[in-house]
Design a protein that fits this description.
Distance between the termini: 21 Å
CATH architecture of the largest domain: 3-Layer(bba) Sandwich
Number of helices: 12
Largest sheet: 7 strands, mixed
CATH class of the largest domain: Alpha Beta
Shape: globular
CATH topology of the largest domain: FAD/NAD(P)-binding domain
Low-confidence stretches: none
Number of domains: 3
Strand content: 15-25%
Structural class: alpha/beta
Helix content: 25-40%
């Protein structure tokens, strides 16, 4: 028999934690699950060297302290059927039933292929930030951070905090867009303070606008990168390159359930109403899965979803906070939109699907993702197309595809007892 929760929440980042707090305060029995061993998501990811502070510490402590919340760590959703979720942890798989379901599945990093991006020493910006927090050795290493968006500053600050030497930050947005972004920040004073604090932590680190890493060079590992800026191309020696072009909403579980999805640029997000309800009864979505909005948006939407899922009317203040946060997200997206040259970095022999070693030229003969997948195996590796599928959608090659179980690689004993037909 499946274990049942009044409110089951998938994802324990800021949005999921806010939803759990609101639902538990309303008296609901809450199940909160996440693929990581510690709650916090990427924003508040557990750091082996540094203790969480402020709001993060308070929200994380709530998970352990509240008797109405069951913390289901290291648990991934493999499949969904009959209003239940099949969840696998390191020891067993089980079905979880729910009265209401809150999807707080967050986002994954957008990585775009360019010559040399598969060299050891090249990672995503958020990826290296996560590695640093898990103890990856960075002391004394020369690190270049590149890509697009303010998250580059957060990644660089984490890298420096863990001993890495940040040799520079290269932002693809042009100087006019950067100035326009800064000029509009008067509407969000808190963001000005956050930006100032990050820049203070990165004192002395060069910040280059209108600058793109076009290639990485090395032998058995990264040795140097090639950067194109307003003054042409130049080569820079470095030990590590962290490059990311923003985030992509994680909608696979929502798509598998049958929730309505809507375009979010080249990708998709979950459609919700003003109470965070999806198109399915008793299924709610919150945070980045509804469109990239940042921590403040995730906290507001999580609180709204948690109240609504528990049968309560959310306080009006959360609606105002959500509107304010979403307005900032739109301002950010407008000024950090990807330049066309970034979409043309991959060459015919550039590997696009790293799992299956499929180069860009192998995909040129196909007009849809399914045909390309069958012929080249692109998207059929361990990541199941999360990296190459998102990249190809951003490059305008193929739209986001359909969603089928299992959502993540699973043990054979889990799959053996499950009918995916």
């Amino acid at each position: 028999m499946a274990e049942r929760y009044d409110v089951l929440i998938v994802g324990a980042g800021p949005a999921g934690l806010a939803a759990a707090r609101a639902a538990a305060a309303a008296g609901a029995r809450v199940g909160l699950l996440d693929a990581q061993a510690h709650a916090g998501g990427q924003v508040w990811r557990h750091d082996v060297d540094h203790r969480a502070t402020g709001l993060a510490r308070r929200r994380l402590a709530f998970v352990q302290a509240h008797p109405g919340v069951d913390w289901l760590a290291s648990s991934t959703v493999v499949a969904a059927a009959g209003g239940k979720l099949l969840v696998e942890d390191p020891h067993a798989a089980r079905w979880l039933d729910y009265g209401a379901l809150v999807l707080a599945t967050g986002a994954h990093e957008l990585l775009l292929p360019f010559p040399g991006w598969t060299l050891p020493g090249v990672t995503g910006a958020g990826g290296l930030q996560a590695l640093a927090k898990q103890g990856w050795p960075l002391a004394g290493r020369r690190v270049v951070v590149a890509g697009s968006g303010p998250l580059l500053l957060a990644a660089a600050a984490s890298i420096r905090r863990h001993g890495g030497h940040v040799a520079g930050i290269h932002e693809q947005a042009g100087h006019d867009d950067l100035r326009g972004f800064v000029r509009g920040l008067w509407r969000w004073p808190g963001k000005i303070l956050q930006a100032a604090a990050l820049r203070a932590r990165l004192a002395g680190v060069p910040y280059h606008g209108d600058s793109v890493v076009v290639a990485a060079h090395g032998d058995d590992r990264l040795r140097e990168i090639e950067v194109e800026g307003p003054r042409g191309r130049r080569r820079l020696a470095c030990d590590q390159l962290a490059v990311g072009y923003g985030l992509v909403p994680e909608v696979r579980l929502a798509g598998l359930l049958g929730c309505r999805l809507e375009p979010a640029g080249a990708h998709q997000r979950v459609w919700v109403d003003d109470m965070q309800r999806t198109s399915l009864a008793n299924v709610y979505a919150t945070g980045e899965t509804c469109g990239i909005g940042g921590r403040d948006c995730a906290l507001a939407e999580g609180a709204i979803a948690g109240h609504a899922a528990a049968g309560r009317t959310p306080p009006a203040a959360w609606q105002r906070r959500r509107h304010h946060a979403r307005a900032f997200a739109a301002h950010l997206a407008r000024h950090f939109a990807l330049a066309e040259r970034v979409r043309r970095l991959a060459q015919p022999d550039t590997i696009v699907c790293r799992c299956e070693d499929a180069p860009m030229r192998a995909l040129d003969s196909y007009s849809d993702a399914r045909a390309a997948k069958l012929a080249t195996r692109a998207g059929m590796g361990a990541c199941q197309g999360r990296i190459c599928g998102s990249a190809l959608a951003a490059l305008g090659r193929f739209p986001s595809g359909s969603h089928r179980p299992p959502l993540f690689p699973a043990r054979l004993d889990t799959l053996g007892d499950t009918d995916f037909t």
